[in-house]
């Protein structure tokens, strides 16, 4: 029960980090692009390292134990790429107008606006919130299942996902506020977009928990590893490079991997 509450709490905190992005958009005058570049690179480093070094092999261990060496290894690889295909398919469903990968900056809120753009910007902000909600759903399942199995691992994944949710909160708030002038509406939409992560956790608990044996756990963890690697390569690294210098992004990745490696050696 303690693990269950911790897993849900971590997922909730990771999801609500979109609200932090929204608050930053309202209470700072400029975007600290260098910090965001390093932070997003760091998040990618954590997620790639933990997926490839820890989660993938935990999945393989479970599946080999349940099915035998050859079928277990094959199913682990299939689950890994299946997770990548799932998140890529979700990406394809999102309209281009709401692409959450589009970099937004806090200073964009002070630009002069025209009435002609208002409806388009509001639509873009709403689509972005919807896109982030769809994206966050499998992330919620990933954080929840990882924390349920291993709380230390769950904390690392939740922290990495929370970091990458902050600029997503800015991406929702900037166009909505620019279109409406309403800070409350912009914050509310940004905040709600992050709630799909705990919803994903609840769904994982209600649907998957009754069937969670070694085989189901292995397939789920392999899929989670694939989802996190895809998100890192498709979202975090490109956004990190757009926010700052290329070298800052790589330094962040290396730092994230080093911190994750150290925590795995010391705590797991």
TrEMBL record:
One of its GO terms (molecular function) is zinc ion transmembrane transporter activity. It catalyses: Zn(2+)(in) = Zn(2+)(out). The keyword Ion transport applies. Zn(2+) binds at residues 139, 164, 168. Its main location: membrane. Belongs to the ZIP transporter (TC 2.A.5) family. ZupT subfamily. Mediates zinc uptake. May also transport other divalent cations. This is Zinc transporter ZupT. It comes from Halobacillus locisalis.
């Amino acid at each position: 029960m303690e693990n269950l509450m911790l897993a849900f709490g971590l997922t909730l905190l990771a999801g609500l980090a979109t609200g932090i992005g929204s608050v930053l958009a309202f209470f700072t005058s400029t975007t600290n692009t260098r910090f965001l570049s390093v932070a997003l690179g760091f998040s990618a480093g954590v997620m790639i390292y933990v997926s490839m070094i820890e989660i993938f092999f935990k999945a393989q261990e479970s599946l080999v134990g349940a099915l035998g060496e050859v079928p277990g290894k094959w199913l682990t690889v299939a689950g890994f790429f299946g997770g990548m295909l799932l998140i890529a398919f979700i990406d394809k469903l999102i309209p281009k107008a709401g692409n959450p990968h589009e970099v937004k900056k806090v200073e964009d809120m002070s630009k002069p606006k025209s009435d002609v753009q208002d409806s388009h910007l509001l639509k873009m902000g709403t689509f972005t919130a919807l896109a982030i909600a769809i994206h966050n759903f499998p992330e919620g399942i990933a954080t929840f299942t990882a924390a349920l199995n291993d709380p230390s691992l769950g904390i690392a994944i939740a922290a990495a996902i929370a970091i990458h949710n902050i600029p997503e909160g800015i991406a929702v708030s900037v166009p909505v506020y620019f279109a409406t002038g309403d800070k409350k509406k912009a914050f509310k939409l940004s905040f709600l977009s992050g709630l799909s992560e705990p919803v994903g956790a609840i769904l994982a608990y209600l649907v998957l928990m009754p069937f969670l044996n070694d085989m189901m756990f292995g397939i789920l963890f392999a899929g989670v590893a694939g989802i996190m690697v895809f998100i890192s390569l498709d979202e975090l690294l490109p956004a990190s490079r757009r926010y700052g210098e290329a070298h800052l992004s790589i330094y962040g990745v290396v730092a994230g991997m080093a911190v994750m490696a150290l925590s795995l050696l010391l705590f797991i």
